[in-house]
Amino acid sequence: AKSNQTKTETASPKAPNGKHYLSQPLIKSIYTADPSAHVFNGKIYIYPSHDYDAGIPDNDNGDQYAMKDFHILSMDKIGGKVTDNGVALDIKNIPWAGKQLWAPDAAFKNGKYYLYFPVKDKHDVFHIGVAVSNKPTGPFKAEPKPIAGSFSIDPAVFTDTDGSTYMYFGGIWGGQLQRWKDGKYDANGSKTDLQQDEKPALTVKVAKLTNNMLEFSEKPRDGVIVDKNGKPLLGKDHDKRFFEGSWMHKYKGKYYLTYSTGDTHFLAYAIGKTPYGPFVYQGTFLEPVQGWTTHHSIIEFKGKWYLFYHDTQLSGKNHLRNVKVTELIHNPDGSIKMIDPFVD
Ligand code: FUB
Predict the structure, then answer these.
(1) 262 φ, ψ to 5°?
(2) Best of 295, 308, 310 to mutate for ligand 1, by most ligand atoms within 8 A of CB?
C-alpha cells in the first residue's frame, strides 16, 4: 500500500534551492549575524549582531537592520555547546547613539576587552564606538563619544604579531562610506556607491589604534585593492570590489584582507605585504549564501582555520539571520579553498 507518511526532518534540512546546507545555525534561540570570532584564553567567543524584527520593510538603505543590543556567544570548541551570555551592551547605554547597532568586533589588550561597534548617531550618521569590559562577555561600558575621526560601519580589529593593532572599517550603500568621499559627511551624497564605473572603487579604510585601544593614532588610509597588474579595482567591478564586512588575518607572514562584495554576494580576498596593503585581489572563497548579506570572520583554533559566516536558514528573511561555522583551508600555494555553503 502507498504510504501517506510525510518525510521526517533530516539532520541537514534542504535549502530553498533544493540543496542541503553545509552547516547548521550555531544558536536558534535568537537571530544573530555578522559573527566576529576570537579566541580568548583558549575559548571561542563570537561577537555577532543581534537581529530582531522591527517591522521595517526591506530597502537598499538597510533600515530593516534596526538592532538594539549585543549578545556574545561562547563555546569551548568547534562543535561544542554554544552559550548565549545575555545582553553585553544595550543601545540605551551608548550616550551618542541614535539607531541601528550594526556589526561589531572585539579585541583584548592591556588586560581589558574592547567591543567596537557601528551605530547611527542622533543625526543618522554612522560612526564607530568602543566599549570596555574586564570580561570577554561583558557587560561593556561605552565611551561617551564615538572614536574621533571614525565613520561608516563594520569595524574589524586586528593585532599584528608585533603588537600593533589596526582597525579596518567601512561599507558602501547603507553603510554610508560613499558619503565621506571628500573627508566630511555629505547628507545628499549617493545612496549606493560613487556611480563612477571607470574610476577606482571605494575601498576599506584602515587606521592604527593608540595603545589604549580607544582612538585612532592616525588619519584612516585607503586599503587599496589592486588587480594582478597593480591597477585599483574599478567601480564597475561589482563581483570583486569591496562593499562591506572586512576582516584581516595573517597567514605565513602575509596579510589576507577578506570582505563582502555586497550586491554580488561573494566573500572575496586580497593579499598584501603590509597591514595597509596594497592588497592584490585573488578571487572569491565563499559562494553566495541564502539571504542578501554575507559577512564573516576567520580564526585559527587548535591548528585549524575556521570561517564564521551567516545565512537566513532559520527565517528565510534577509534581516533575521543566523551565524554558522565551517572549516577554511589555505591551499599549499596560499590561496583559499572555495567554500560552497550548500552541498548536494
Ligand atoms: O548587520 C547589518 C549589516 O548587514 C552589517 O553591518 C553588514 O556587514 C551586513 O551584514
Answers:
(1) 60, -100
(2) 295
102 C-beta closer than 6 A to ligand 1: yes
Taking a C-beta distance cutoff of 8 angstroms, is the pair 187, 259 a contact? no
Q: Is 109 helix (H, G, I), strand (E, B) or coil?
A: strand
Q: Which residues are designated catalytic?
A: 34, 244
ipTM associated with this complex: 0.97
| Atom 4 of ligand 1, nearest CA residue | 293
Whether ligand 1 lies within 6 angstroms of the CB of 295 is answered as yes
6 pLDDT more than 90:
no
The structure's pTM equals: 0.96
Query: Is the model's pLDDT at 11 over the cut of 70?
Result: no
Going by C-beta distance under 8 Å and a sequence separation of 6 or more, which residues neighbour residue 331? 337
Residue 55: partners with Cβ closer than 8 Å, 6 or more residues away: none
pLDDT of residue 13: 77
